[in-house]
Amino acid sequence: MTSAAQSRPVVAIVDAYSTASHLAPLFHARGYDCLHVQSQESPPAVFTASFNPDDFVGTVLHGGDTEKTLAAIEPYAPVALLAGAEIGVELADTLSEALGLRTNGTALSPARRDKFRMVETVRAAGVPTADQILATDLDALLAWYGPQPRRVVLKPVRSALNDGVSFCDTADEVRAAFERLMGMQSATGHHNDAVVAQEYLVGAEYYVNTVSLDGKHYVCDIWKTQHLGVNGVHDLLGGSQLMVREGPEQELLVAYARQVLDALGVHNGPAHTELKLTPQGPRLVETGARVCGAMLPLLTRAAIGESQLEWTVAAYVDPESFLSRWETGYEVARHAVCVNMVSPHTGELLGYPRLTELQALESYHDLLLKVRPGERVARTVNDMTYPMLVHLLHEVEGIVTHDYMTARYLDGEGFYDVA
Length: 419
Known about the structure:
Blueprint: E1 10-14, H1 23-29, E2 33-38, H2 45-48, E3 58-61, H3 66-73, E4 80-83, H4 89-98, H5 115-124, E5 132-135, H6 138-145, E6 152-156, E7 166-168, H7 171-181, E8 195-199, E9 204-213, E10 216-230, E11 233-242, H8 248-263, E12 269-278, E13 281-288, H9 296-304, H10 308-317, H11 319-325, E14 335-340, E15 347-351, H12 355-359, E16 364-369, E17 376-377, E18 388-394, H13 397-410, E19 417-418
Parallel strand pairs: 1-2, 1-4, 2-3
Antiparallel strand pairs: 5-8, 6-7, 6-8, 9-10, 9-12, 10-11, 11-14, 12-13, 14-18, 15-17, 15-19, 16-18
Helix pairs in contact: 6-7, 10-11
């Protein structure tokens, strides 16, 4: 297709996977076609399951040569170009800057993907952060850890979906985690040649989802998460609860998140920022310069009428509408919880014997089934091994809380029939 053959303007999306697969239909509804840019020849399957090629007028495969990729994109004359999934963030920065489109630019692009550089960049801007080290050898890591046992977190420099995240309480556990991570290929396809080690941040974890336009950050939704100590994992995400916009915790979190976005040069587009509220105040876990994953914006939309997806589309194709509303807050019409179900077993899944009990809950809204009967289910240890996510939604918060606790009770040994 050439620009002459196009009847509608085009928006390019780099790696429109996971939640970002829902962006193209929203752009279509605004009168725009979408071009897909694929950053890797063989993207990890965990990202691509929800991709729909019919939503796009074409796909440009980036083979590593930026000039060739730009030449393939230019006939479509895109009016905007943005990242979809985490693996497309840096390429989107490069391409949008080269095309002269609204962009976050390349100057701080590595700091938006490299987890060590991310925290160092935020600290250099005067924002409080966790103590950390980038370890390429075990001796330096153990020297940083020190002689006294303490809890620290080790993780790959570039990854996603909590892949490889390890909680360590002793020097022996630090050593084992380092040796396991070094040389391993991360979920995003990168070879680990270094490991990030950080102090363990004590406190509840939160998500602040935003969309930015020329440095103006709109807060789309805020979530408080609950974690479990299960399956040998100290902090496994058990669920997320949508918070109302106003409140003492929310103001602390939003002010801090906006400082983080400014420090990392996130001036345009969506961002998913994970924070902990420690006794010393908010601290950054990490930020992704893309829409929130796990289809959480779909639940947000059901709860408040719009989500990070709609705000992202507005920022790129209807900036006047965005600017007229960006300082307003959202209103929760229905309370929402996303429950992460946790499999205790690995094997062939024969069925979910108690699924009907779960679906009979008063606030049951939807189900994101990741493992179906007949497929292999894995013992849940990270974001890639949840067998299902359950969305709860109701006008009465107490009913959602009741059903959340009931879902947690139903989950476990009797919920899974595994060969």
